[in-house]
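[Discussion] Sanity-checking designs against the backbone

I'm trying to build intuition for which residues belong where. Below is a C-alpha cell string of 241 positions. I'd appreciate it if someone posts a full sequence so I can compare it with mine line by line.
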C-alpha cells in the first residue's frame, strides 16, 4: 500500500456506491486515507465500504440534515475531516421539447444543491482545523439532451471558484474536476452508436477509466496540490483542445 500521500487523512466521498465514486474511495484508501463512503443506495454503499475497508453511510445529498450528519459521522469516528469529494450525481436526459420541470429540478437538486451542501458542511469543519481540501465533480458535458445536467455541472465550477475565495485564508482549498467520457454504469446506458461517436471525437481516441479520474482526486486531496485552489482540472483525453 502506498501511504505517503494521504496517510491517516479522513476523506468523505459521496456517490461512492459504484462507478467513479467507488473508484475514488478505493484510490484514496490505497494512498492511506480513512474513507467514509456515502450513497443513497444503502446496499451498494455497504458493500463498497466492506470491500474497501471504509465506513458506509446512507445519505441523500439533497437533504441538509443528512449531509450535516454525514460530516458528523466522519468527525465522530475519526476526529477530523481532511478531504470531501462531492461526486454524487444523476441524469435525466431529454430534449428541451420533452424535458419536464421535475427532471430539470431533480438534476439541479442533486448536482448543485447537493454540492453546495457538501461544500458548506465540510468547510465549516475545515475552517476550524485551518486545513482541508474540497473537490467538486463537474463535467465537460455540453451534449444535446443534457441542458439540465450541463447547467448544473457548469454551476459547480462557479461554486468552486467562489467558495475557494471565501475559505482560502483558512487554508481550505476548493477545486473542481471535469471528467469527459468515462466508462461507468451511467455511460454504459448510452446507445452504443452514440458512445462510439463521442469516443471517436476524443483526441486520445478512447474513453477514460474511473481510475484516471480518481488519480486527479488523489492529487487535489494531497499536499502535492497545496497551492492549488479555485482550479478546474479536465480529465477528458484532450476533448476540449
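Best answer:
Here's mine. Compare freely.
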Amino acid at each position: 500500500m502506498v501511504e505517503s500521500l494521504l496517510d491517516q487523512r479522513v476523506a468523505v466521498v459521496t456517490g461512492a456506491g459504484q462507478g467513479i465514486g467507488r473508484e475514488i474511495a478505493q484510490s484514496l484508501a490505497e494512498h492511506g486515507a480513512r474513507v467514509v463512503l456515502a450513497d443513497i443506495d444503502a446496499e451498494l454503499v455497504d458493500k463498497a465500504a466492506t470491500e474497501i475497508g471504509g465506513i458506509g453511510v446512507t445519505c441523500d445529498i439533497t437533504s441538509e440534515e443528512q449531509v450535516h450528519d454525514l460530516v458528523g459521522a466522519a468527525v465522530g469516528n475519526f476526529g477530523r475531516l481532511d478531504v470531501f469529494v462531492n461526486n454524487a450525481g444523476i441524469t435525466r436526459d431529454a430534449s428541451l421539447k420533452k424535458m419536464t420541470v421535475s427532471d430539470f429540478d431533480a438534476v439541479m437538486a442533486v448536482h448543485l444543491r447537493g454540492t453546495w451542501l457538501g461544500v458548506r458542511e465540510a468547510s465549516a469543519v475545515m475552517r476550524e482545523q485551518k486545513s482541508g481540501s474540497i473537490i467538486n465533480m463537474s463535467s465537460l458535458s455540453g451534449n444535446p439532451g443534457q441542458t439540465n445536467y450541463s447547467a448544473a455541472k457548469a454551476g459547480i465550477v462557479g461554486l468552486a471558484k467562489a467558495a475557494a475565495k471565501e475559505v482560502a485564508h483558512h487554508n481550505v482549498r476548493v477545486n473542481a474536476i471535469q471528467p469527459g467520457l468515462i466508462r461507468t454504469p451511467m455511460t454504459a446506458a448510452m446507445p452504443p452508436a452514440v458512445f462510439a461517436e463521442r469516443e471517436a471525437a476524443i483526441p486520445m481516441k478512447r474513453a477514460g477509466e474511473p481510475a484516471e479520474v480518481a488519480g486527479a482526486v488523489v492529487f487535489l486531496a494531497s499536499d502535492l496540490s497545496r497551492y492549488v485552489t479555485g482550479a478546474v482540472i479536465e480529465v477528458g483525453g484532450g476533448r476540449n483542445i
